[in-house]
Automatic annotation (TrEMBL):
This is Aminotransferase. The keyword Transferase applies. Belongs to the DegT/DnrJ/EryC1 family. Signal peptide: none annotated. Coiled coil: none annotated.
Amino acid sequence: MNEKFSGSFTQQEPLSDAAIAAALEVMQHGRLHRYNVVECELGQAALLEQEFAAQVGAKYCLSVASGGYALATALRAVGVEHGDLVLTNAFTLAPVPGAIASVGAVPVFVDVTENLVIDLDDLASKVGQAKVLMLSHMRGHLCDMDRLMQICNDAGVTVIEDCAHTMGATWNGVASGRHGAIGCYSCQTYKHVNSGEGGLLVTDDEEVAARAIMLSGSYMLFERHLAAPDRAVFDRIKYDTPNISGRMDNLRAAILRPQLRDLDAQVARWNERYRCIEDGLRETPGLQLTERPAAETYVGSSIQFLLLDWASDKVQEFIRRCADRGVELKWFGAPEPAAFTSRYDNWRYAPVHSLPQSDRILAGIVDMRVPLTFSLDDCAQIARIIRAEVGAVFQREGSLPS
């Protein structure tokens, strides 16, 4: 009889006792707004920013309402204006081009490679078109950041890193988000720390930091920040930087602080599960895994593989068969957006140019969450089910593309 997996792909672990206690303390005193503090009190949001800046080695940090808000704030803080072109990945999630569109700018899409990272040759050919690259480390895959930064530095292009899927990851020992001018992180439930929604922005640029803080809705309370520039920097920018309120509150910050302290241990647990699934899928005929470079320290909170050059009806049949056995997979090749998956040609607010390389790769990308609620036995079972169903569809006579 065929195995059937009975676990949930959306169930998170409960918050730790430390996070619950911190949340209760905030709820008991009632000062949820980040600037609502009593004399000599350091608010939870300000402490979170100070601690995360130290954790990733940044001078400045700002906590905000969401990762998408952090991205849009980063664009505004570096001076992106209506009509400007902004480079970004063809393989990403909708909040990335959405952030670009939200400031009136225009996304210019760069190809993806079979290792699911931005194509650096295509980037080099397009880098002269824009002054900013919003680089998405999509689904936790880091490209060669040394070469990317060389390309962008030579062209005078500012890099904003979308680290929604790479909090805790590194390239050559440098934390994700610390190669470019700004790093933006998500604290949404399905990311690496869970406050339901939330975001973090880090930078070493004092004026960018000051503008981001003013944009987030600090009014003239910026001196209550602990990971912020000196008052003199705010005095230079405070009159011409609009308030677009999107602050994080003290309750979410309180929940996040203990989680950030546990992040390294959680990364190790994710990667143990990732490698278990990866090992179970290796050398499956018809299925291609992505290669992880030696310079990359990744966080395996999701796993992707390619059914490259499969006919679309066969990919759909495979996904349906896995679903019937309890394994929930997402496909980036579907013609219509579904759940969190969509493609660059679905975003009709952005001009679409022909990207045949990306079209081929997107048509084969299958994605799966790896919750920490899964045991290693669960992961091994999931890999067996995927392997069996790939074999059932791929090996059937007539199933291969002609």
